[in-house]
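Lab notebook: predicted structure, single chain.

Context: the supervisor wants predicted structures on file for every construct in the current expression panel, including those that have not yet been purified. This is the next one on the list. No modifications to the sequence; it matches the entry in the shared construct table.
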Amino acid sequence: MPERHKHEDIEITQAKIVKVGEKWVQKEITETVSVRVYEEIDLYNEDDEIIGKHQVAVMESYVEEE
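Prediction complete. Output recorded below exactly as produced.
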């Protein structure tokens, strides 16, 4: 089976300024966006010592549509 990046939906709330009639109004806008999922793993040097962190993309299998 082929693989692709795994995604998850998250909600983001932002303050946006919009014109309502003759006034400018600050409104909170919430939208859902799809982001790639990453796993954080330890990063080692050649002496097997942890020297930091590294992010690896999480993959998922899927069925190709014909």
